[in-house]
Amino acid sequence: MEYKIPANTRIGHVHLKVSDLERSLKFYRDLLGFEVQQYYGDSAVFISAGGYHHHIGLNTWHSKNAGPAPVRAAGLYHTAILYPERKNLAVILRRLVEANYPLSGASDHGVSEAIYLDDPDRNGVELYWDKPKEYWPRDEHGNLLMVTVPLDIAALLQLAM
Fold this sequence. Notes:
The longest helix is centred in the middle third of the chain and has 13 residues, at 86-98. This protein is of the alpha+beta class and 161 residues long. Helix content is 19%, strand content 27%. The radius of gyration is 17 Å and the shape is globular. It has 2 domains: 11-65, 2,3-Dihydroxybiphenyl 1,2-Dioxygenase, domain 1; 77-161, 2,3-Dihydroxybiphenyl 1,2-Dioxygenase, domain 1, CATH 3.10.180.
């Protein structure tokens, strides 16, 4: 019998190797708004949204004061942070624009709208919200048709006003 992972399985958290905890906290805590749940000595910190034990672990166990991982190597492409509503995505986009934080991209994928950027260690970060499932594009056979087209940033920012 073919095994399938249970449908309600979720990715619980991600651990990121960073070179400087405080610099990373300025990004994840101070800019993106994650809350510190626990410091693990002076080499790791666990952060989350809404009081969960941790959605993201930041650690310097093998990376303190190191440079970023090479772009052209195997490894994590990005961490995707899913916002519950489109307006939440608009608000964080406004925060990023006001902070003059550089974006690396912004796309409408048909199923979601996404903003792309790098954290201070050049770990990729995707901030996105999922469109309602009934609006996801499908072909005549019901197969999902994800796309990558430019995101209407101006329209999204209008929601943050």
